[in-house]
Amino acid sequence: MIDVRPYEPDDLPALWALAHLPDAGVTEDPTVPVPLRERRVPPTGPADLVDPAATVLGAGGDLFVAVQDGHVVGVGGLRPVRGRPRLGRLVRIRVHPAVRRRGVGRSLMVALEGAARHHGFTDLLLDVGDHQPEALGFYRALEWSETWREDSPEWHWQTVWFHRSLERDHLPVEVRPCSGEAEVAAAEHALPTGGRADHLARWQRQQAGEATYLLAWDRDQVVGHILLESASVFPDVRASVGAHPEVHLLNVADRVRRRGVGTALVGAAAGVAQEKGAALVGLALLADDDAALTIVQRLGWAFRPGLTPVDEVRRRDHRGAEHVAQEECTYWTLDLAGRRRS
Ligand SMILES: CC(C)(COP(=O)(O)OP(=O)(O)OC[C@H]1O[C@@H](n2cnc3c(N)ncnc32)[C@H](O)[C@@H]1OP(=O)(O)O)[C@@H](O)C(=O)NCCC(=O)NCCS
Questions:
Q1: Which of 252, 251, 201, 206 is nearest to 229 (CA)?
Q2: 109, 114, 241, 331: which could join 304 in a potential S-S bond, CB 3.0 to 4.6 Å?
Q3: For the whole model, what pTM was predicted?
Q4: Is the CB–ligand 1 distance for residue 77 below 6 Å?
Q5: Cα gap 77→90, rounded to integer Å
Q6: What does the alpha-carbon distance between residue 22 and residue 324 come to, in Å, rounded to a whole number?
Q7: CATH number (domain holding residue 183)
Q8: pLDDT, tens only, 198-250
């Protein structure tokens, strides 16, 4: 019988024992005794497990342990993300190697998601190394969206970031850069541009190194896209904020709106901007774009008063005829410092 409860200070030696076990590669091992030899010395890392009271709890988060017959067999934490009041980050999810694939991880996730709702979070993030196949299988099975990948010269692995929305009928998607003309055709099929070669032009700009064209996939169907320009396209923004990357063309297929895909795309674009070394990412919003406004506010983007770039907008009238107009936008930026893997 597995019980998931909040962490208590007496659990620390058992958590340190769990943290000493390997977590890369395939580490499921039914021969490891369930009562682990408790450790009186902390693991060499990570900080969240060396001193969870100071890190996870001290940051205003929650830590849960899974207990079987009086023995700690799992742990998982939730931390607020600085400057992003609606966003939570899951950390240090681990299950004892001998009790894997029995639903312990799933029970910890239920407790963590409940705590996240209690905090008023709308979205959760987590990261995992691609050398941790068990964790990748786990988050995919739990229908998290895979949003972007991060490299670092110090790592021999790639970090994979996952996203899950809590409020809606979450649709798990995989967001990745467009990889060729077959994907351009899939994008045109799902989100037609009326005979114009818009998807192709975006892919070609990516090929030229001027932009990254991200597509969101629901299995083999494209359900949304976003374009990350390498530098702001607005001269007045460049003059006052600098040549940071900028998000454009966020679009989600009508049939899957309000299911977290737009949030996954915006999060992924910000991740790609950070991966390219940017300290800031920007976005111009039309006055009536309520959906994008909700997303950027949830993800902690800041309104930049005094910046009113003018964007070109295409709208269709009731007869289906297209009109191009110049419209004034508000401007928003996201500070990317401090978002790296911990
Ligand atoms: C990832 C981890 C926490 C999963 O814990 P768990 O208790 O085994 O997970 P559950 O039994 O609740 O699994 C739920 C579902 O996830 C999927 N899953 C879990 N482990 C998997 C694996 N090794 N391969 C593929 N899918 C897996 C399965 O669909 C599983 O359901 P099923 O067993 O009915 O098929 C555990 O493997 C672990 O501690 N790994 C090492 C530490 C780690 O990588 N932590 C994550 C770092 S963020």
A1: 206
A2: 331
A3: 0.93
A4: no
A5: 6
A6: 58
A7: 3.40.630.30
A8: 999 999 999 999 999 999 999 999 999 999 999 999 999 999 998 899 999 99
